[in-house]
## 1
Amino acid sequence: MALTDFDLTNRRALVTGGSDGLGRQFAEALLDAGADVVICGRRKDSLDSTVSELAERYSGISSMVCDVTDQDQVSKLAIELGGIDILVNNAGLSHRAKWDVEQSEEWRKIMILNLEAPFWLSQKFLPGMIGKGWGRIINIASICGIGSLDPRLFPGLGADMPSYFASKHGIIGLTKFLSSQVGETGVTVNAICPGFFDSPANHEVFKPGPLLDSVSGATPMRRIGTNTELRTALLYLAAPGSSFVTGQSIVVDGGWSIW
């Protein structure tokens, strides 16, 4: 193995939901590997702030405003952005509701963002990758996409997220399907399944207390992940050296799923 196996110089990446949280960590990881990175999201102020901060260290960072749940905006993004080499479908949300009272409207919102938007983006950018004979699609799934959760391990919170579980199982299925369709083209399609991480969105959830103690205690490494511990998994799947890896779901969960 050579370090060039991870070199993304002259590669162009798009990270959805890339202005904060794990999306920003993914953007920084790709920039560190030499890629030019475009982050997109709905909030221009957040995008501008992130680009301003990262531009102090990287010359290849830029942003575009796009609500990926709007097909017209996705089409416009694809036209204005042009070709890319790496697509990181990171934007996503969860919604809490018991399965027997979940409303169709909320269910649809989660499905559109977590499952349909990655498909729309793949439709737009895959042809260009195929034309070049090289490309990477990396879908951010979840351990909630490979199984279920024991609600007894989440005191005061539970695990009532039927739409989230369904959408993350769906994105893994989409990953496998697309990878089988483009397997001979030089394009790979993979997923990352994070466990529990101390991202900004989770600070309040995983503050010191019974919930954090329970989740940490149920994890073989006896802790939750940090903001930087998904970087290497992402770079591995984006790298030239992983050209024979496709249709896979890389689990990064401190061992949670092995029990």
Note: The mean pLDDT is 95.
## 2
Amino acid sequence: MEQSSKNPKPKLKIDWATHAAAKYACENWHYSKCVPVGKIVKLGVWENDKFIGVVLFSRGASPNLLKPYKLTQYEGCELTRIALNNHDTPVSRILSVSMSFLKKSNPGLKLIISFADPRQNHHGGIYQATNWIYSGTQVPGGSLEYLINGKWTHPKSVGSTYGVQGKKFIEKNPGIKTRKPTLKHRYLMPLTKEIRKQIEPLRKPYPKRASSVESGTSVYQTEGGGESPTDALQNTSSNTLTNEKITQSG
């Protein structure tokens, strides 16, 4: 949710964040209440030296995420979380600065993909405000979702938590409810002129707002204070998506 600005030019800082900081932000300021599984790059957000959340990028749920664009898994990534506490800076600016920071630290990246979930009343307003290319809907990856402790859980999260998924998980948990993954709005952000030229023909009209309250890329905000940058929140080690593995210490 973009909030009215009390300070016309709040001081914005984007830097590496620790897993602990990402976990705190996601659990407290994002509707999913969890950090995505797998290798992720964690960018912290500070406004006027106050920690207000994170922007997270990852390989995504599907190993085939980039195949339609003829890219390897090291040439693109998925924007998987924007988890923010109360702030004055527009979310669109936070996202733009975060993407610039990521691109500078990962010069081999060519494309960012993200999804907006209609089940959460999201249509991708933040992506539209920052000129992403809307290319329709798709299931981002995975098979059936499972209802665990009252929450619909992605199969990748089930596998990482319980060590098994699919039919074997159902056999071990008879009676568990399942559902097919929802179709989500797919948005593309090219990082090179060549990729923009390649995917521009995929552009479709933006979907309309799903509700009166739109948080763009699943931003969830709540009351509560942040902290000034500390070793517990900030990680100054390098993070890369373009190497063979995403690297981040801490």
Note: The first strand starts at residue 12 and ends at 16.
## 3
Amino acid sequence: MTNSDFQPLVGIGQHNIALLFSHYLKTQQIQNHISEEQDNYVIYCDAAHLDRAKVIFEQFIADPMNPKYQKAAWHSAQATQVNDDEPPFLDVLKSHFLAHAGIVTLSIFVICWAVYVFLNLGLDKSIFQFQDVASNATVLTQPWRILLPAFLHFSLLHIAFNTMWWWQIGGDIERVEGKWALLQLFLISAIVSNVGQYIVSGPYFGGLSGVVYAVVGYVWWAGWLAPQKGLQLSKPIIGFLLFWLLLGFANLLPVNVANTAHLLGLASGCAMAWLKYKV
């Protein structure tokens, strides 16, 4: 079978999702291959089975975590040889970390950790709070201060949790839609969640979690409204984060949680996906 016998089927933003679908197609006797094109993984399949492959993809993208796809990947996977020429584990980890995220994802990640380190070295945390904005007209002369609470974290667990989700989901958005789309999402959701939390509870809060819930909401609705983009979150992950949100509002968590920031962040992310793909 030559390259002319293959037709492009779909472009998927996440390599692992593309591989999963490719393996499943092979178990259905549909020959295919994956080509990386402009930050997208395009699946080319046998032209004679293109219509059938489209139907299979619609079923797949509606429930990509179905065990039958994992089973297909297991049966289709080929063994790899381990040899002495393989790069060290830390080099592989670093390259994977950098490859998954673009400049915006990594910049926000680094800023959060830099602020956390300097705060533990004695930097005054009031710099990052809404305190000065609330007491005078700083918001007019220094509007960036509205964003600063997003970079403020109060514990190692707090920053690790937020930056892990930001790297994972924000990285997916940046790879699929580009740095400006992710930057816009960050700015809008940070402003909305920070201002909302200040109105409800005052200036003493911080964290990237409002933005994290925004990227969760964005990918959740983008996966629903435009599945062909390849932005997807599994139902268990969405369920876990929504359950965490409910626990916060029920005051059942052992730590203080910026519940309003979480809710407004989620709402802003969902709204931006809806405006982009539905309107």
Note: Strands lie at 6-12, 32-37, 40-46.
## 4
Amino acid sequence: MNNPIFDFPVKTIDGIETTLSPFNEQVLLIVNTASECGFTKQYQGLQNLYSAHQAKGFSVLGFPCNQFGGQEKGNSGEISQFCELNFGVTFPLFEKVEVNGDNAHPLFVYLKGAAKGILGSQKIKWNFTKFLVNKQGQVVKRYGPMTKPEAIEADIKALL
């Protein structure tokens, strides 16, 4: 039986409505991203993780967000092109979402509730906050923006 995480409605960066069900039984790293952030270079590390472990049942899911310093101004086409040209991103990207506040995407409301931040806070503090999800769809851990993707690799391998 699917975990509720796989039932959340999402839109791909190409505007296709879907759910996360295609990622059922995969280890996931779900990240709120931005193209003009000091952490934007983490796209390369995320892509490296995806390339190294995709064949073993791992995916990175990128959700652009413009809530932090207006660092994701572009439309879906511009974001997709930026990620591909600058970092060779091939992992799935989704349409821009909000991760905090009244209009927070339900997926991020769920993730924040399942893996709280420092001092029990649910609020996402900045771009490139990462949520690690096991094959059963359970949120295992939350990583702050300062945590580089390569520092998460051992945790990913342990779930594969």
Note: The radius of gyration is 14 Å.
